[in-house]
């Protein structure tokens, strides 16, 4: 059994921020250091998806480590939009190896200063060139997936909208969230069309933000018990199914096996809801509900904050916001807070095992992380 | 003692290549797979510095893993121009952790299709904004370092040029090198001025290329015995010295300690000669020669292919070429070939311990790797 623990966490409020990326990371890292009471690190692991283009800064791991006043080993990890989970997994392996005892993991992105068309074009670089040449964007391909899911499993527009309603409600209780107000189902289903059937409130926003997490080999309350990671074909066109993501399914299997646990043992989960339909698909890929049953579970209130299996208590990418390289780590930090009983107004009941699932690109670089309260 | 071995390596010819980045990686990975006889991997570790801007492709770890026909876990590592070493170190830790047995490490960059002014501007993003705003580029800051070194230690223009003469000679024996022809000292010191005192032949070229390396937990001939990694201030202005790089010195100390060896035990080394003066500084930072003594050692022929401590038998970044994200891994692969006795026309005599040193940015993210023949 690996002895790798989470010793402390920090996060900036997500949203439109005026600070630089390294100042945001500094704020989150300071909070994590205070939380953990650890001040000396063997390495700094940095997650950021595309700072070279988003902010014009290269060499970001050195930029950030210098800003933190350190000259420790530092490297940047990137796995498209699952980068925050990717950097956590790489840091886990470094501690599990026995070479490092305390590692500072940070993840951040700064994007809101760019015109939406520019950031959308940059984001589209994660899509297969075979699909990009036809003008496909992330929302366009997600819409294709959503429409197919609605066709195969009879999901209706109203149920889809309930994901946004639930997650905005949760976000309204989270002081770190980009959006801290509730939305009505009417507002969701009447919002501006982005790519049919996905409307504005079906899509996570572009946000700025950073978070930080300290891993240690010394026994702490929260242990990292399961990790899984898998990729899938770059092109959607090359897959057998559009309505489930094999990279999540394969990553989940590995994570459950490593943690010696099963979907029914999970008390709380953060899943990658960059689009409302993805939350429904994710909860099926993770084995929480049978294929096609994610919508009904949502309607039944099972995934609400007070339900049997709260999903995205933080508000998810939908309401907490989506600074792309940070989201995967922010999910894990939410699970840490939930297991520690430190999630304040959005605290779920007595959670012992929590799971975070992150999607990279069009669901082709996905990671699953399981934490347990010792 | 860690049980992590290099099982096989592959490399494309560096230079101006028409293939895509993922096709170049495919070519190198195929060679490494044939060399190692390993076909099943637990993960694919990808090093590339800035494909988003250089080639317009994001999500590069998935792009490459898909091109290799795999759906294994994959992530990208970046540490500016030391990326190829950074990805090797991260992959080492993953095998040392016991979670992975066989890992495919690939690194590549494609840059020559860009106009030089464009690639130079993109490369300058690794420099501190405090220095970039004055128009500083990598060669301009390297020139500052070089001039100061010449002033402090009396290095002359001719001795500096001998680095290029030696490395081009070595490159002429290396079928993977970008430049495979010798140059005379006259040609070097009369070449076009880039940034005084650095001339065209003092600077590594911009190249395309890829390489691949397979790490395994199963006993093989070549063991990874020492690793060290350190960062330094982003700005040159914040350092105590311009004529030595503390990140190399600190990384070297860690690598020697881990390998339980010392500079005098090293039989062959690849060092980061993006600029001729850097090779001289590197050989001092690594403890091969006393401070200020690197030039004399070069003049005495100690670092020649047939000398007591051959430096850059491959031709170095100077002649093998410098696809930025690949160079750090290419150095390690050269050491692997030298220790295995497979370096063909550039083979050095009976090397048992070899070292590779890579510089990220303006020497602020540096790594040292030591391999040993078992």
Characterise the protein shown here.
Two copies of one chain form a homodimer. Chain A has 374 residues and is α/β, with parallel strands linked by helices. Chain A has a domain at 5-114 and 211-216: Thiolase/Chalcone synthase (Peroxisomal Thiolase, Chain A, domain 1), CATH 3.40.47. The first copy, chain A, is 37% helix and 18% strand. Chain A has 14 helices and eleven strands. In chain A, the strands form two sheets. Chain A has a nine-stranded mixed β-sheet, sandwiched between helices. A two-stranded antiparallel ribbon of chain A has the order 5-6. In chain A, a hairpin with a 2-residue loop joins strand 5 (193-195) and strand 6. In chain A, helix 4 crosses helix 14 and helix 8 (157-171) crosses helix 11. Chain A is globular. The two termini of chain A are 13 Å apart. The mean pLDDT of chain A is 97. Chains A and B meet through helix 3, strand 3, helix 4, strand 8 and helix 10 of A and helix 3, strand 3, helix 4, strand 8 and helix 10 of B. Strand 3 (74-78) of chain A pairs antiparallel with strand 3 of chain B.
């Amino acid at each position: 059994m690996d002895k790798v623990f989470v010793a402390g966490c920090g996060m900036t409020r997500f949203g439109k921020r005026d600070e630089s990326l390294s100042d945001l990371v500094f704020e989150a890292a300071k909070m994590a250091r205070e939380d953990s009471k650890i001040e000396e690190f063997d390495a700094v692991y940095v997650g950021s998806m595309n700072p070279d283009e988003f902010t014009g800064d290269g060499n970001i791991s050195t930029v950030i480590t210098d800003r933190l006043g350190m000259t420790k080993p530092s490297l940047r990890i990137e796995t498209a939009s699952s980068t925050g989970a990717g950097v956590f997994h790489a840091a886990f392996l470094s501690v599990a190896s026995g070479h490092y005892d305390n590692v500072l993991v940070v993840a951040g992105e700064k994007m809101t200063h760019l015109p939406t068309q520019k950031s959308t074009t940059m984001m589209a670089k994660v899509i297969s060139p075979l699909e990009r040449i036809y003008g496909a964007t992330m929302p366009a391909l997600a819409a294709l997936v959503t429409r197919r899911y609605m066709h195969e499993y009879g999901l209706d527009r109203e149920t889809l909208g309930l994901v946004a309603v639930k997650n905005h409600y949760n976000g309204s209780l989270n002081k770190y969230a980009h959006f801290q107000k509730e939305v009505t189902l009417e507002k969701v289903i009447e919002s501006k069309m982005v790519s049919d059937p996905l409307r504005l409130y079906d899509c996570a926003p572009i946000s700025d933000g950073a978070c930080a997490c300290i891993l240690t080999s010394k026994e702490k309350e929260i242990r990292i018990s399961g990790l899984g990671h898998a990729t899938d074909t770059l092109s959607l066109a090359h897959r057998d199914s559009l309505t489930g993501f094999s990279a999540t399914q394969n990553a989940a299997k590995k994570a459950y096996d490593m943690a010696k646990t099963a979907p029914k043992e999970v008390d709380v989960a953060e899943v990658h809801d960059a689009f409302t339909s993805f939350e429904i698909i994710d909860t099926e890929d993770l084995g929480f509900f049978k294929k096609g049953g994610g919508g009904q579970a949502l309607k039944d209130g099972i995934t609400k904050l007070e339900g049997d299996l709260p999903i995205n208590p933080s508000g998810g990418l939908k309401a907490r916001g989506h600074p792309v390289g940070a989201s995967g780590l922010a999910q894990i930090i939410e699970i840490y807070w939930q297991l520690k009983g430190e999630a304040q107004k959005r605290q779920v009941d007595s959670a012992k095992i929590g799971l975070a699932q992150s999607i990279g690109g069009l669901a082709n670089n996905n990671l699953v992380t399981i934490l347990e309260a010792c």
